TrEMBL record:
<protein>
    <submittedName>
        <fullName>Molybdopterin synthase sulfur carrier subunit</fullName>
    </submittedName>
</protein>
<dbReference type="InterPro" id="IPR012675">
    <property type="entry name" value="Beta-grasp_dom_sf"/>
</dbReference>
<dbReference type="InterPro" id="IPR003749">
    <property type="entry name" value="ThiS/MoaD-like"/>
</dbReference>
<dbReference type="InterPro" id="IPR016155">
    <property type="entry name" value="Mopterin_synth/thiamin_S_b"/>
</dbReference>
<dbReference type="Pfam" id="PF02597">
    <property type="entry name" value="ThiS"/>
</dbReference>
Length: 79
C-alpha cells in the first residue's frame, strides 16, 4: 500500500469501470490519472466527469497526495 490511491466511481462512470471502487498506483497528479484511466478504460473518453481529491473538487491539474481518495463524479443535474 505504498503509493496507492483509492478511486471511487459513481453513476455511469462506475458502470464503465465495472466497479465502484479501485485501488491504483498514485500517478502523481490529476492530469496523469485521467490519461491512465483513458488508456485502461477508453470508453471513459466520451464521458464528462469531475474529479474530487479527498472530497475537494478540482478543475485543473492538481497533485494527488499518497493515500488519497479520488472520486470520479458524473456531471450534476439540477437548476
Amino acid at each position: 500500500m505504498e503509493n496507492q490511491i483509492t478511486l471511487k466511481a459513481f453513476g455511469m462512470i462506475a458502470e464503465k469501470l465495472g466497479a465502484d471502487q479501485l485501488r491504483l498506483e498514485n500517478p502523481g497528479n490529476s492530469h496523469e490519472l485521467k490519461n491512465e484511466l483513458f488508456m485502461k478504460y477508453p470508453e471513459l473518453k466520451g464521458l464528462k466527469f469531475n474529479l474530487a481529491i479527498n472530497k475537494k473538487m478540482v478543475s485543473e491539474e492538481t497533485d494527488i497526495p499518497i493515500g488519497a481518495e479520488v472520486a470520479l463524479l458524473p456531471p450534476f443535474s439540477g437548476g
